[in-house]
Amino acid sequence: MDLEALIDFNTVASHGGFSRASRTTGRPKATLSRRVRQLEDSLGVRLIERGARTLRLTEEGVALHEQTSVLLDRIDEIQQTLKGEAGLPHGRLRISAPVLFAQRGLGRIAARYAAAYPDVQLEISADDRFVDPLADGYDLVLRANPAPTTDLAGRCFLRDELVVVAHPSIPRPDAADEVAPVPAVMLSGTAEEALWNIVHEQGVQRLRTRTSLRLSSMAMVHDAVLDGAGVAMMPRSLVQPDVDTGGLRQWGRVEGRGSEVWALYAPHRHVSRKVSAFIRMLTEQFVDGSADGFASLRRPAA
Q1: Who contacts 124 (Cβ-Cβ below 8 Å, separation ≥6)?
Q2: Range(s) within the chain of domains with CATH label 3.40.190.10
Q3: For strand 153-166 and strand 232-235, is the pairing parallel, antiparallel, or unpaired?
Q4: For the domain bounded by 3-75, which CATH number is listed?
Q5: Which residue has the higher pLDDT, 190 or 31?
């Protein structure tokens, strides 16, 4: 594969068309078009749909762009490092984050990052499915409680306590009533029935649950519990405002379990400056991993 042709293709894809790429880079539009065709001929696939008013990548073009743009940025950074041109972070930075975390102020962190590093083209996608940074073209993946078997490198930047909460209309069973299951709102992928050990003022209680509702995101679980669909296990920082106002009642904290949010990336020997800068911004927001960092991200009520 011709590396220069690949660079030209990614330039066209990133700028949304040959004309924009030509204006930005100063390279003739005809040259960019010819190099992309040469790349298509060498690969034996069409990468760009011709004839459309706006640039449209084929399925193969999307896959090639997502999987090689990160590598090309990395090559560029290595080249600059070898030349001694440290400078500020630049290039494209693609991040995948859980829906709930994204909704709790990640946009404000992103705005600060964009202001501090204007040469970085930041793109954040909210998605609860686990993604592979290399296969899906992401530089950084933020995930809660990632599997300990993951091969990805990373850093835990946020820790939170898990608590069991319910709408006030749902009574908490007495400790002696352990055998009676209570309706629970569960995340997808969890067991149908579960025993939770919760700690409260009377001691430790074994709580048996039966699934009343199964949802794919913590944001939906939160909404369902507020409407009385059942008990749920959620981060304390998320539900504390509801507990304070009486919208939810806390039954106890979950014994031996917590919530950790990690910033994960492919295990390179050297982490790129743009990734390091974003992780540093996260650790500065959540000092010592404290969930108190969410407080300054919340906008005051209108």
Answers
A1: 94, 95, 96, 97, 102, 106, 107, 110
A2: 91-159+261-297
A3: antiparallel
A4: 1.10.10.10
A5: 31
